[in-house]
Amino acid sequence: MPVNEGMANLSDLLFGTSVAVYAAGMLGYAAEFAFSRLGTPSGKAATADGDGQLETAGEAGAQAEKQEILVGAATSATGTAEAAGGSIEAAGKPGRHGKATRAGAGTAGLADAAGGAAGSDVAAGGGDAAGSGFAPWIGRIAVVLTIVGWVAHVGSAVTRAIAASRVPWGNMYEFSSMICLIAVTTFLALMTRQQIRWLGVFVMVPVVLSMGFAGTVLYVAAGPLVPALNSYWLRIHVAGAIVASGVFLVSAVTTVLFLLKDRWENRLAEVASGRAEASRAMRSRGGIVMRLPSSATLDTITYRAIAFAFPIWTFAIIAGAIWAEAAWGRYWGWDPKETWSFITWVIYAAYLHARATAGWRGRRAAAVSLLAFSALFVDYYLVNLVISGLHSYAGV
To answer: Rounded to a whole number, what is the distance in angstroms from the first to the last CA of the chain?
Structure first.
């Protein structure tokens, strides 16, 4: 069937528009971070009890001299009512939380000593920060831009499908576009349930970079599928891989943020105990890491994202095996793509198993999460672009 050139050109235009609008939204989220500050002058700290409820701590006159240094140490609850005292999924289980529990408890203690700074919605994930009055409006504009970019992105995928008379994920350019679309959709969906506007800049950075790379290096003009791909299993197998990969991308972002926040909390503990000097950011109430929610909250978001995406990835692998049997007469042949998809599955399975049985939390779980996403990165980019195999027929 001939390609509808008008729709193809419109798809390319909408793709470029979505990248530009996403980039503007990314700058908006970054500006909100830059022009907002933590802290309230109330002289009181908010701490979390075992049920995740915030209660007001008393005055800490003896520690008043540390107020400027330790501002931002208080951790607060997200929509899931995470406790700052180290609760990750349920309060009152100190033996299972490992590093994150210790860091979270220490941070809550620092907040009590500091006597301030728990009132920021940026730290809690909302984004309506205390401080500069226009910062929250910048964040809201960034959300609007993200939604506008998402609409253009969806339009690009739909018009691409109409132009080629097929599903819009037949090559790496289209696949990359769809992964980024799922990542942005995941972020917007989470934002309807929890106050996580703080996550916007960190999601949009890899999305903009990936879409820019896809639109310049991986771009392929709209056209019909090669015969090997012309199967209804393309709709099933690849759709599952796209959804799982997009959510895994978000989990990788929150994993990196967890490691940064965990290091920050440990540094605050050392400053409070007198074993280290406060950095300039601690004294000036600056720094992006200070504005993030607690490491325990980030750890939980990562876990839930992976727990959601893993069954979908499993389904994609099973569907791919069934497609392989129909196309090549065997379910599994250890093709490079199959091998790395399986390696990715094993590492993510190990992450979930370690959390469920061994109680892994904190840095150990984060290391496994990043290892799994690295395997996914190899599976997608290196296997498709460098290693030759049966899956190479799709081209870029």
So the answer is: 21
Answer yes or no: are the C-beta atoms of 150 and 189 closer than 8 Å. no
Q: What's CA 307's distance to the chain center, in Å?
A: 13
Is pLDDT of 282 > 80? no
HEC-encoded secondary structure of the chain: CCCCHHHHHHHHHHHHHHHHHHHHHHHHHHHHHHHECCCCCCCCCEEECCCCCEEECCCCHHHHHHHHHHCCCCCCCCCCCCCCCCCCCCCCCHHHCHHHHHHHHHHHHHHHHHCCCCCCHHHHCCCCCCECCCHHHHHHHHHHHHHHHHHHHHHHHHHHHHHHCCCCCCCHHHHHHHHHHHHHHHHHHHHHHCCCHHHHHHHHHHHHHHHHHHHHCCCCCCCCCCHHHCCCHHHHHHHHHHHHHHHHHHHHHHHHHHHHHHHHHHHHHHHHCCCCCCCHHHHHCCCCHHHCCCHHHHHHHHHHHHHHHHHHHHHHHHHHHHHHHHHHCCCCCCCHHHHHHHHHHHHHHHHHHHHHHHCCCHHHHHHHHHHHHHHHHHHHHHHHHCCCCHHHHHCC
Provide the whole-model pTM. Answer: 0.75
- Separation between Cα atoms, residue 216 and residue 82, nearest integer Å: 42
CA 394 to CA 396: how far, in whole Å?
7
Nearest to 26 by CA among 164, 212, 178: 212
For residue 329, count other CB atoms closer than 10 A to its CB.
8
Structure tokens at 282: 């601690």
Q: What is the pLDDT of residues 231-273, one digit of tens each?
A: 888 889 999 999 999 999 999 999 999 999 998 888 888 877 7
Among the listed residues 230, 165, 180, 216, the one whose alpha carbon sits nearest the alpha carbon of residue 393: 230
Smallest CA-to-CA distance from 205 within 374, 7, 19 is with 19
User: Is residue 290's pLDDT more than 60?
Assistant: yes
| Per-residue pLDDT reduced to its tens digit, 62-104 | 333 333 344 444 433 333 333 333 333 333 343 434 444 444 4
What does the pLDDT look like over 335-381, one tens digit per residue?
A: 888 899 999 999 999 999 998 887 788 898 999 999 999 999 998 88
The amino acid sitting at 382 is L
AA letter at 124: A
